[in-house]
Description:
By secondary structure, the chain is mostly helical. It has helices at residues 2-16, 28-50, 56-76, 88-117, 134-164, 170-188, 190-197, 203-220, 223-235, 254-282. It is globular.
Amino acid sequence: MEEIVLKITQSRQQDQHFVQSPSSGDIKPLIIGLVLVSSLISITSTIAHIYQVTNPLITIALAVTMYMITLRVLRWENIPLKSLGLSAKHFIPGLLVFLSFWIIGDLFALILDFATTGSLRLARFVTLSKGWPPLINIIEQWLFVGPVEELFNRGYVQTKILTLLKSNGKVIRRIVALFLSSLIFALLHIPHRLPEMHTWSALLPLVIWGLVLGYIYDRCGNLVFSGLLHGSLNVGMPIIIGTWLPKITNIYSVNSLSFIASVVLVVEAYRRWELRHQTEMID
């Protein structure tokens, strides 16, 4: 039984991480990808700030362009999307675990909100674009921004760093890749976040959220789940109760810590289900 589990784990890791290709050990694609994406974000956010534009169509165009850059880099490296956790077979499990997380989260929020306030309150969406209905923000963030950022930051950058590391310790390599990719994720958000926060300490919450999303990807290898969760963190959920949804800058609150704890529980439950499911298929 232990040999079967070992084979399943090794097979899953090979499917999740890079397919070995001639350029898999080359750092040039990573550097060029980061330069292109960071330049794209900087230029777009600067123009939006100068002209005070909050049009979700611009954000969608930015996400589509970022997606095209990512696809070009992946083709350069001969890496299929399937090997990074984005395919038809990943969609249903990713969607189900995403919905399960928010159902569990809402039940937890219901109890927490009632215990602390004695009443129940429906939270409001975070309106990212003034004058636009929440549905547009949902489409913008859930279908474009969240999935595309996860494909680039977790699917490509995190896995690429893991491939480049030469350490023999698999756990150490994964931890280092997780931290470095989270730092890069935070730095990429400087152009459109730091001017509003006026402090470098704004990087810390972004790094922590990068670690949370990176942990999800490392354990699940499913970009559908992490992409939907990323997008929902930006705008909230239609059924979220009370004030449980944490603000990205308030990482130290009880709500945020409870949110992260819920993520860990759901992700590890999914991991166990996935392993059991694959074992049953072999048997």
